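Q: My collaborator sent me two sequences in one message, no labels, and asked for predicted structures for both. Can we handle them in order? The first one she listed is below.
A: Yes, handling them in the order given. First sequence, followed by its structure tokens:
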Amino acid sequence: MLDPASRDIERYMDLVAMRQKLVAANIANAHTPGYKTRDIDFQFEYQAALEGSKPDVIEAPGLKSRNDGNNVSLDRELRLLAENAIRFNAASSFWKGEYRQIKSAIQEGKNG
């Protein structure tokens, strides 16, 4: 069974993966008439995930629509890709640290 910190990291990484899929879909639909940018409110959804709620996908607020009704901003999506990479790397590093501690405790138990 995972400890609470590991479960929290897992939920965090699930949200990072979900946002990555949304950003990829937004980029893929950058030229689809009428397509509206989809996203999650990351901070809010992370808190909700810690309480067991499923993330809620929303239309990204405050984006200007072009004449064809599409509101995807490639600059915004590329920024979110970079932000997501940072989030993933940080969570991955933390996860590796948790794993090393568990592995160390097991090794000490075998030697002790």
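Q: And the one she listed second?
A: Here it is, processed independently of the first:
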Amino acid sequence: MNNLRLLREGRIILAFPYGIAIYKDYPHSVKSFKTILKSNEVIYSIGDIVTQNLLKENVPVRIAIVDYKTQRGIYIRSLFRMHFSKIVKCYNPPGLLTTETLDIVYKAIESSCNGEKILIEVKGEEDLLVLPMLFLCPPNSVIVYGHWKGSLNVLHCSPILKSTARIILRRYFVPET
């Protein structure tokens, strides 16, 4: 399988905040998230600030994907590392989904189903990993990510959202040659 490159028109589609968008500052955003979280849901987070805020509020994140870059320039690397039993590193350039990274996400989800807590450290860009996470996540899981317009976004993994992720991956990504 080849790396997948995001098409220009895909950037427009992905600029929209999907799922439930919570437009509140921390810690109110996390408190609002907790009110819509179901008791049996497994939590996956994508993004440095979102992950940091969830961990600071003792939200049990099973997989976190971070790149140690943020528009705000504030993060606590040691906070991330102390909450996870396994740390995996990968390279995922901007605008791409690499086969290596997709394999790591797949294996991490598989391991998380057995209770393992995994931190995926991405050199490059982690934002696009919402799509394969959504496509691959098991039932009773939720993906939390930050949107550049300031919202905390919550995706409850459902057949409809999984289908949407599949459509976006097929329509707006092409194999890199």
